């Protein structure tokens, strides 16, 4: 099994979406390990962003970056094939709307060739993912209510991250929402190794420095056994 690695995936949610390609290229040039693409359907969350046609256009311009879609949608089954066809490598969906068919959705995502991410809203107990861990490649612990960028980080989600790291030492664990230089220490100590940061990177004068500092905080917690 590959050792855990620290990876930084900027969210383009609060970027200038009229310049999606340029903004994405800039993030990658500044050291982003992957792109976190927030897909919202206006039903699961009270906001709308973009869907697979936009992701496909971005993929046509950017051939080699790892794309994760964070599916904040009511019906995650519906978008598996379109997102796989659009060139997405990881399909991270919320379990809340599909609690009675999580295993089935996981199977279909894997059959489509994408990695599986299971996302948890702040109010969802972490134990809810336990029975699906073998079917998943990553668990995303939301540190804000999904729907909007620029919200305040919820430090009281860290026990969920700790619980996951204690029970699954090799699991990829992602945090998303209000993460940045001021909150990275809590995330890295708790055991997160995949870090989504939107506003903190997009609005930074020196994106490369922020990405580098976030990654080194997480990598150093991994190296020094500082997690948990
Ligand atoms: O999923 C999300 C919101 O639902 C975004 O990924 C997240 O909010 C990132 O933005 P920021 O770092 O500004 O909070
Ligand atoms: Co997100």
UniProtKB/TrEMBL annotation:
<dbReference type="GO" id="GO:0009052">
    <property type="term" value="P:pentose-phosphate shunt, non-oxidative branch"/>
</dbReference>
<dbReference type="InterPro" id="IPR000056">
    <property type="entry name" value="Ribul_P_3_epim-like"/>
</dbReference>
<feature type="binding site">
    <location>
        <position position="70"/>
    </location>
    <ligand>
        <name>a divalent metal cation</name>
    </ligand>
</feature>
<feature type="binding site">
    <location>
        <begin position="198"/>
        <end position="199"/>
    </location>
    <ligand>
        <name>substrate</name>
    </ligand>
</feature>
<keyword id="KW-0862">Zinc</keyword>
<comment type="pathway">
    <text>Carbohydrate degradation; pentose phosphate pathway; D-xylulose 5-phosphate from D-ribulose 5-phosphate (non-oxidative stage): step 1/1.</text>
</comment>
<keyword id="KW-0170">Cobalt</keyword>
<dbReference type="InterPro" id="IPR026019">
    <property type="entry name" value="Ribul_P_3_epim"/>
</dbReference>
<dbReference type="GO" id="GO:0005975">
    <property type="term" value="P:carbohydrate metabolic process"/>
</dbReference>
<keyword id="KW-0413">Isomerase</keyword>
<protein>
    <recommendedName>
        <fullName>Ribulose-phosphate 3-epimerase</fullName>
        <ecNumber>5.1.3.1</ecNumber>
    </recommendedName>
</protein>
<feature type="binding site">
    <location>
        <position position="36"/>
    </location>
    <ligand>
        <name>a divalent metal cation</name>
    </ligand>
</feature>
<keyword id="KW-0479">Metal-binding</keyword>
<feature type="binding site">
    <location>
        <position position="176"/>
    </location>
    <ligand>
        <name>a divalent metal cation</name>
    </ligand>
</feature>
<keyword id="KW-0119">Carbohydrate metabolism</keyword>
<dbReference type="GO" id="GO:0046872">
    <property type="term" value="F:metal ion binding"/>
</dbReference>
<dbReference type="Pfam" id="PF00834">
    <property type="entry name" value="Ribul_P_3_epim"/>
</dbReference>
<comment type="similarity">
    <text>Belongs to the ribulose-phosphate 3-epimerase family.</text>
</comment>
<feature type="binding site">
    <location>
        <position position="178"/>
    </location>
    <ligand>
        <name>substrate</name>
    </ligand>
</feature>
<feature type="binding site">
    <location>
        <position position="38"/>
    </location>
    <ligand>
        <name>a divalent metal cation</name>
    </ligand>
</feature>
<dbReference type="InterPro" id="IPR011060">
    <property type="entry name" value="RibuloseP-bd_barrel"/>
</dbReference>
<feature type="binding site">
    <location>
        <begin position="147"/>
        <end position="150"/>
    </location>
    <ligand>
        <name>substrate</name>
    </ligand>
</feature>
<keyword id="KW-0464">Manganese</keyword>
<feature type="binding site">
    <location>
        <position position="11"/>
    </location>
    <ligand>
        <name>substrate</name>
    </ligand>
</feature>
<feature type="active site" description="Proton acceptor">
    <location>
        <position position="38"/>
    </location>
</feature>
<feature type="active site" description="Proton donor">
    <location>
        <position position="176"/>
    </location>
</feature>
<dbReference type="InterPro" id="IPR013785">
    <property type="entry name" value="Aldolase_TIM"/>
</dbReference>
<dbReference type="GO" id="GO:0005829">
    <property type="term" value="C:cytosol"/>
</dbReference>
<feature type="binding site">
    <location>
        <position position="70"/>
    </location>
    <ligand>
        <name>substrate</name>
    </ligand>
</feature>
<dbReference type="GO" id="GO:0004750">
    <property type="term" value="F:D-ribulose-phosphate 3-epimerase activity"/>
</dbReference>
